[in-house]
Amino acid sequence: MENVLRPLIVIGGSVVLTLLLGWLVDRLLRRAGSRHRETPLWGLLRRCRIPLRVVLLAALLRGSYRQIAWRPVRENGPALGQFLTLVLIGASAWLVVRIAAAVVESSYARYAVTARDPARLRRVRTQVTLIQRVVTAIVGVVAVAAMLLTFPPMRAAGASLLASAGILGIVAGVAAQSTLGNLFAGFQIAFGDMVRIGDTVVVDGEWGVVEEITLTFLSVRTWDERRITMPVSYFTSKPFQNWSRGGVQMTGTVFFHLDHSAPLPLMRERLALILKECPAWDGRDFSLVVTDTTPSTIQVRAAVTAKDANDIWTVRCVVREQMVAWLYEHHPYALPRISTGPAAPPPPTV
User: Fold this and answer.
1) Which residues pair with 227 in a beta bridge?
2) With 60 as the cut, is the pLDDT of residue 141 above it?
3) Phi/psi at 164 (nearest 5 deg)?
4) Nearest-CA neighbor of 324 among 253, 271, 251?
5) CATH domain 195-242 topology
6) Cβ proximity of 186 and 213 under 8 Å
7) What's the CA gap between 267 and 289, in Å, rounded?
């Protein structure tokens, strides 16, 4: 009878105690969150409920499994203890990652409430995202190393591994030169304020918005919802356009190739009316000038402004569409034409 009751008491007691402690911690976090609603940390820490319960249960079973007077447990005690140790290390790493993520997200959320500069907010968002990824990578590496060191053969080989660490480091550095370059480029982008999440960029002739930045690659979402994935080292070694740096306001241009008889004063008046009816125009400025001439046409440039890259695209399309329609309807003579005539004969030769 004891062989049945003792395992039930040990395992059942560990489960009940784990659930009780987990419920108590969750209750305290919920109460702290209700008292301090301006601090999102307590609500974010509630995401740690599952890893916390796994840590508690693994710790309780690791400390009490020897009390189970059950033959399979006694015969496989070392293997069971090793398994519970590995579970405890993995769950602890999981808990640390969740806590770090909650702290980082809480800090960013509190900063986002008080921040007034969108560019600085995107910079902080990029930095905290990369910091969170670095913490996750470090905790994962430490957890795997701790798991490996629990095996006696790995501890015995520790001295020889440390002795050859210098040679292995050189070999690994040469082999992973590209990866390490991308890693350091990721830190340079995060803290050098070169490009941030949410910035509008032009890379390799593609226009898009930076959607994700990791330690090794960067993802750009184009206007047609494609994703361009590029190594972060590209942005530290090649030129690219960042339309969001130094302010998001932009000036765009629309070019028209017209006949020399085009009514430029009337076009300026029409441009003003088009912009007044366009919600995307920010009202800052506009102009219409002749920028070039050819024997058959003139090049007219309309310059317009908008508050960001998305709106400037809309304003340019509206101006181009409505101006061409207005010229075709009211001033068709202003559209470019091809004039033909008989060729002049060559002069007579003497």
Assistant:
1) 221
2) yes
3) -95, 10
4) 271
5) SH3 type barrels. (2.30.30)
6) yes
7) 10
Per the structure block, which two tokens stand in for 137?
């990578």
* Residues written for the chain: 350
pLDDT per position as a tens digit, 230-277: 887 777 778 888 877 766 688 889 999 999 889 999 999 999 999 999
The pLDDT tens digits of the residues spanning 66-116 come to 666 556 656 666 677 778 788 888 888 888 888 888 887 887 777 777 766
Long-range contact set of residues 20-27: C-beta below 8 Å, sequence gap at least 24: 21/56, 22/49, 22/52, 22/53, 22/56, 25/49, 25/52
The number of CA neighbours under 13 Å toward the Cβ of 185 is: 21
Crossing angle between the packed helical segments 77-114 and 118-149, to the nearest 10 degrees? 170
Distances (CA, A) of 249 to 62, 123, 203, 274, 293: 60, 17, 20, 20, 30
How far is the C-alpha of 58 from the C-alpha of 78, rounded, in Å? 15
The answer to whether residues 70 and 7 touch, using CB atoms and an 8 Å cutoff, is yes
Distance of CA 59 to the CA centre of its chain: 37
Confidence label for 38 from pLDDT (cuts 50, 70 and 90): low
The string of DSSP letters for 265-321 reads HHHHHHHHHHHHT-TTEEEEEEEEEEEEE-SS-EEEEEEEEESSHHHHHHHHHHHHH
Q: Are 47 and 98 in contact (CB under 8 A)?
A: yes
Please give the structure tokens belonging to residue 247. Answer: 């302010």
Mean pLDDT value of segment 175-192: 58
* Domain regions of the chain by residue span: 2-156, 195-242, 250-334
Report residue 11: phi and psi, to 5°: -70, -45
Assign 159 a pLDDT band (cuts: 50, 70, 90).
very low
Intrachain domains 195-242 and 250-334 with the same fold: no
List the CATH code of the domain at 250-334: 3.30.70.100
State the Cα torsion 141-144-150-151 to the nearest 10°: -120
CA distance 105 to 41: 8
Is the pTM value of this prediction over 0.70? no
